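Practice problem 4.
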């Protein structure tokens, strides 16, 4: 029974990661376009609404679900393997640090959302273009650790 629950937790965790990653890859792209919008104009207002919906309806809930299910998977692994011994080694620490970095990036994007909402964005489209690549690089490292190093 425990294995079936673990598989369901893992499946929904992966789905939540997909939703979160979609937002982390799309929101900075919206910011790139937003940099070119005239403050108070139609495009500015449309982008504000899109950014708000993406962040509040998709990204924030997905990130919360990722964390809850990820912690549930850790707890489940501890029960199956008999305690903290399952987490010895570099891979668990590396994955955890990378997920914290991904969460930090989410927080940066949230802070930048507030700047756009207030009309006080002070970053260039070039900076957002560079930031747009970071979630994918983090995701590559996390997936490689999860699939190859953590067996």
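Answer key:
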């Amino acid at each position: 029974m425990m294995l079936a629950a673990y598989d369901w937790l893992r499946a929904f965790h992966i789905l939540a990661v997909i939703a979160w990653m979609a937002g982390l890859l799309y929101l900075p792209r919206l910011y790139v376009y937003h940099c070119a919008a005239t403050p108070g104009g139609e495009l500015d207002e449309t982008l504000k609404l899109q950014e708000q919906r993406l962040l509040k309806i998709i990204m924030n809930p997905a990130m919360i679900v990722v964390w809850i299910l990820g912690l549930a998977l850790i707890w489940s692994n501890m029960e199956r393997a008999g305690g903290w011994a399952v987490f010895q080694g570099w891979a668990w620490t590396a994955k955890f640090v990378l997920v914290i970095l991904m969460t930090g990036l989410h927080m940066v994007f949230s802070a930048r959302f507030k700047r756009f909402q207030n009309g006080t964005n002070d970053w260039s489209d070039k900076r957002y273009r560079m930031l747009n690549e970071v979630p994918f690089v983090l995701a590559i490292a996390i997936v490689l650790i999860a699939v190859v190093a953590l067996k």
